[in-house]
Amino acid sequence: MYNLFPVILSGGSGTRLWPASRKSLPKQFKNFNNIGTLFSHTLNRVKELNNCNNLIIVSSRDYEFLLKKEIEKYNKESLLILEEISKNTSAAIFFAAKLALEKSANALLCIMPSDHWIPDFKEFKSVIKDSIKYAEQQYWITYGIKPSEPSTGFGYIKVSDTYLENIKDVEHFIEKPDFEMAKELLQSKSYYWNSGIFLVSAKKVLKSFDDHNPEIRSILEKVWSNRENFHNRSIIKKSFMEDIPNISIDKAIMEYEHFIKLVSYDGKWSDIGNWDSMNRLLVNHKNSDDANAILIDSKNTDIQSSERLIVGIGLQDLTIVDEMDATLIFKKGEAEKVKEVVKKLQKDNKKIADQYNFEYRPWGKFEVLLDSDECKVKKIIVDPSKSLSYQYHFKRSEHWTIVSGKAEVILNGIRKTYHVGESVIIPTQVKHSLTNNGKDLLIIIEVQYGSYFGEDDIIRVSDPYNR
Description:
By secondary structure, the protein is an alpha+beta fold. The protein has 3 domains: 4-271, Alpha-Beta Complex (Spore Coat Polysaccharide Biosynthesis Protein SpsA, Chain A), CATH 3.90.550; 290-346, no CATH class; 358-462, Sandwich (Jelly Rolls), CATH 2.60.120. Helices cover 24% and strands 34% of the residues. The protein has 11 helices and 30 strands. The strands form 7 sheets. A 6-stranded antiparallel beta sheet has the order 19-20-21-29-24-27, with no helix packed on it. Strand 20 and strand 21 (375-382) form a beta hairpin. Helix 3 crosses helix 6 and helix 6 crosses helix 7.
């Protein structure tokens, strides 16, 4: 499979898995108890597929360091397409096809989301391998899952009544149905869940855009030609992306394309799209020593807690999700409505809709301990051998106190080392940086004073992470 280019789409924010999944740390990068991250699981599947060779990842530029953190475990250098704003799967797949063709004129794309759970890697590889001959004949290959319940969370695909081997002709795609329609589709043998996984030649992708949406192709070509290249990274600039229609590949191409085959995937598969599917997955991987949840005299109830102990007594048909700053409780069967909660929080300009009170950075992470009109207090954790950028602020001064480790600080070009219990005062507009040259974590408490405490009041003079 020399010309096979796995393409991982990883730009979504996973609002239906709030409060565990948020824009600042979406579900594919969230470390869930006992299963790790969904992105890591996807990489393991790709490793079995072709040892992560020719891997293309399309994601948000905001997640670059999260991607690199996952990828570096595999000692592979991937091709990154980093979008400054998201414009859905049609743009992402077009960009992946363009990049693959720069590497091989006969490139085949195996396109997959980063948030699926497919435990049988060998079976997945076998199904993809058996489909290659059809993709080489210039068909789009989509992988369908036989419905097991009347789900309203998936799109559906109708196939013709030809039952030749395991591959079928696609008649049309169906948007996520309501419950009554989903029950009707479940009774028919002609409908499959749309897995969102495709196998297609890169040339066929471009031809499909020519045939069915040349206007969008023209826009995408212009955007691609104005990308910024940095070794293995292609940065898709916001100023050019704003003209791209926000449209899925199903809407832009698949609803019009005639050369589509469906291959039925009969192995275990789960689209971790909401808390119902996530709970089923986590229950199967639950350890007997999990100590964050206790249920007494309760039925059909799931508790997912990241840190605190949650105890339920006499509960029935409930899901409880607890994070350090938010708790979600809903009746089983109502999982799809979680996204409505996020929309309301966003409408009310509540930061909790999209942000945790902590954020990962290429150098480590920070946690907000207090955010008031008078000051902002952070706990900053710097990994060994990592540094913050050399920067300054216009609207705030800072006071650092070292609580663990040893800090090398530069203030206006003067370097000094500080130890536990010592403090550093950084006035407004003074250039400064922080480095951990030790083998242990460096932890400082930062108190910000001033008129504005936003992350956009950072002027970087130099940055080891090229932000």
